[in-house]
Amino acid sequence: MEQLKIEDFKNYRFLSGIRHSPDGKNACFVVHQMNLEENRYDSNLYILNVETGKTRKLTSSNKESQFKWLDDENIVFNAMRDEKDREKSEALEEITELYKINIHGGEADKHLSFKKELGSYEFLFDGTIIATVSFDLNNRELLGLEGEERTAELKRRKEEKDYEVLEEIPYWSNGSGFTSRRRNRLALFNSDGSFKEYITGEFTDVESLRLNKSKDKAVIVATTFTDKMELTNDVLLYSGGKLSSPPLIAMNYGYAGFLDDEHLVLTGSNMLSYGLNENKRIFTCRVDGSDFRDLSPELDLSLYNSVGTDSRYGSSQEKTTDSGLFYFLATEGTDCRLKRIGISGDIEDVVSITGTVDGISVSEGSILYVGMKENSLQEVYSTGSAEPMTSFNANILMERTLSVPERLVLESPASHDIEGFVIRPAAFEEGKRYPCVLSIHGGPKTVFGNVFHHEMQILSNLGYFVVYCNPRGSDGKGNDFSDIRGKYGTIDYEDILSFLDKAIETYDGIDSSRVGVTGGSYGGFMTNWIIGHTDRFKAAVSERSISNWISMYSTTDIGYYFASDQIGETPWTDSDKLWWHSPLKYADKVRTPTLFLHSDEDYRCWLVEGLQMYTALKDNGIPARLCMFKGENHELSRSGKPLHRVRRLKEMTSWFNKYL
Q1: What is the mean pLDDT of residues 597-603?
Q2: Buried b or exposed e, range 50-83, using 16+ CB within 10 angstroms
Q3: What angle do CA 162, 163, 167 make, to 5 degrees?
Q4: Predicted pLDDT of residue 191
Q5: Does the residue 602 lie in any domain?
Q6: Total domains present in the chain
Q7: 17 C-beta neighbours (distance < 10 Å), count
Q8: Reduced to 3 DSSP states, what percent helix, strand and coil does the chain have, rounded to the nearest 5?
Q9: Per the database record, which ranges form the Peptidase S9 prolyl oligopeptidase catalytic domain (predicted)?
Q10: Which of 169, 206, 390, 560 has most Cβ atoms within 10 angstroms of its Cβ?
């Protein structure tokens, strides 16, 4: 077998978006693969016959990543294949083109054209289309403008691209750029794609849209604000051509869908006990908002997949309803499982694997899911068998040397045992001693599992032990365990270093004089914090980090509510506390050579956070290097451009090789 290499990324297939056809006989999903030569991801649609398990490729232009079933045998997807359409888009015209393709083969034909930029969309029972559209309060509406007026507005938009005017917070969003006075507005379109009317107001931002089974009603989660976005939002109902707001308890709602034609199922949190990271509950009510009740009073898990890996790509459905049951993903321990609940409130485990369920589709009891089992890449599975239905990644990892993550538990008398893993060097030999890298996850409310992680396997193949754990603040163990508000850098710091000590004590092969540390986002914060509080690490790689809670509060897309919630203060109520929890305060004590990796469009943990730490270390004579990735955002390590992801790993491994 050959040693795993950084560029082996290009051989992995990432699966996403699986959905049954209306009759349940087939399923469509997306297969993505890195294209290093073109520095992009190639994405195509595949069809799975649910009964036979046979899979075949449906599209081959490498650009199809969003689709919807039109009927049992036809699929529509967004595309810009016509040169004239591309020219219109480049001229800032608002345009969306839907193409239709039959699942039995043939060429895709243009199906519908919209003079708006569509986000999510659904076909109502009468052929009318309900959709979210990009709406910019900074511009004149193009609909209805003709001739010189239209030309003048398009010219003005082109000129205005050199400027940004901010009038509200948040004013930008990671992955979306500047967002001030921009909304996803709900609209109706006629069956031929022509615009009919707006349903929501100018200042309402629609977060999700779902239909009932009869396709004559829609439930919407939306936020309406001017100047400042709050964390509570609204659940709206579209029925009979009218939009209503059922009288529901004010909270932060996530999912909203139809449990059946008479009942809604909702996930939400009032954030009163554990702040914005509080686990959401599952509620039900009638469509008019009456009989509102908590279906899951004893459930204390996050209702999504928070198990981290750099080996996923694309979006997938994590919640759905079928036959009066609500299916949802939940992170439990170090795994992500599929569960379901009905109107009775009984919760059942549907898929419990060592690994993660990444995306689901359910049709009349037929359950398909994209999963990662143990130390392997994604495949499509059915609940009827433990074996995968697909084999996209079956032989890829078999040809490379890998090391299996070994579970390690740091027992605590305070009933908060810290779980984690140790990966040995791929060519490990008893009696030899090896350098070690301590890896810290983001969040902090996420979790490390034993799923395949390319970065960690690369380090293993280069001769490193890799140690990683889930300290207090992590997901998977309920609200009490994940709540570290006002404690950043204290109990979590203790847990991480104590777990490292446990690993060194357990594994004789770890050379404690050659240990490095790395992490991104919260892991970047913790890396910055660690190097300011101990000299035991010989090298550090800090990624998309936080260094200063005061600057983070006022410059990042979530800062004004995240910093005040997680630290417990604002710059005006107690700036000393924000500064006390800021790694920059302790930067003069750093003696560890540190590499900083940041993206210039990361608006979650903005570039300025890395620059401040980098400058402090350089000013104090500590070896430091900052590599900035242009055009990338907070998701660089997970969905950045392929060549950028390769460069990131080369920067990291070169730094550790130099100092460890």
Answers
A1: 98
A2: beeeebeebbeeebbbbbebbeeeebbbbbeeee
A3: 160
A4: 97
A5: yes
A6: 1
A7: 21
A8: 20, 35, 45
A9: 452-660
A10: 206
